[in-house]
Amino acid sequence: MTDSHSLSLPSGTWPTIDPGWVWLCGAGPGDPGLMTLHAVNALRQADVLVYDALVSKEILSWANPAAELVYAGKRGGKPSAKQVDISLTLVDLARAGKRVLRLKGGDPFVFGRGGEEAQTLIQHGVPVRIVPGISAGIGGLAYAGIPVTHRDVNQAVTFVTGHDKTGGPTQVDWAAMGRASGVLVIYMGMKHAPSIREGLLAAGRPEDEPVAVVSQATTPDQAVLETTLGTMVGDIAAAGLEPPAIICVGRAVLMRQVLDWQALMRGETPRDLDPLGRGKPAEQG
């Protein structure tokens, strides 16, 4: 494991966390190497690190050795801190003159409740800096060899959450979404996969539409299930996949057949040099 003293930042002038400030930083989808330099810089300075369930032990090891570590993870179906309590804890720490880092998996402003926390802080007069991170819906799929956009597949991609703020199925107009976007990237959709499947089928998406489920994205435990809309629920259960996971629906999933770069690193060969069925490259002129 890398310790906090062996990881150095490039030379240059880096911003400082002043006492009484809160930095809301994204930690990326899991792989510590996907952290931004601004986030690492914040880790080195913070007096208090308030982190969520998706922040790895390796990332925590980079923190200021004197920093207080406060766990504030939220996991569906498990006992978790209430969001209002987390936000007010940040307020209290800042008012105590601490240099506070709120570290969240992925990007804090992409289904990460970072907007709610920043809003509460600003309402209480606490200064805030936002440090974006790589979102799992982009970085996690990239690690699976799935580009969320490809000129031969889609001109739009839609990011959607699988549940609403109550934890129930998201109230999405699946019919409109099904018509408007060729590729759907669904966060936190495992629990409600059956209702998502039924909504998309009712909206006219075909049963044989490609679907990929990426669990534990970008970590050593990453698992990728390639399935279809019609069979996804049974296949997820049979594979034993568990959250956190990203569900991708659309023909972009087919690109994994040739762009699974992790398989290529293991010496495997592409399954299909032309997954979109347009003819082999030599035939395209």
Automatic annotation (TrEMBL):
Belongs to the precorrin methyltransferase family. This is uroporphyrinogen-III C-methyltransferase. One of its GO terms (molecular function) is uroporphyrin-III C-methyltransferase activity. It is an enzyme of class 2 (transferase). It holds the Pfam family TP_methylase. Gene3D superfamilies: Cobalt-precorrin-4 Transmethylase, Domain 1 (3.40.1010.10), Methyltransferase, Cobalt-precorrin-4 Transmethylase, Domain 2 (3.30.950.10). InterPro entries: 4pyrrol_Mease, 4pyrrol_Methylase_sf, 4pyrrole_Mease_sub1, 4pyrrole_Mease_sub2, CobA/CysG_C, Siro_Cobalamin_biosynth, Uropor_MeTrfase_CS. Pathway: Cofactor biosynthesis; adenosylcobalamin biosynthesis; precorrin-2 from uroporphyrinogen III: step 1/1; Porphyrin-containing compound metabolism; siroheme biosynthesis; precorrin-2 from uroporphyrinogen III: step 1/1. GO terms for biological process: cobalamin biosynthetic process; methylation; siroheme biosynthetic process. Its EC number is 2.1.1.107. The keyword Methyltransferase applies.
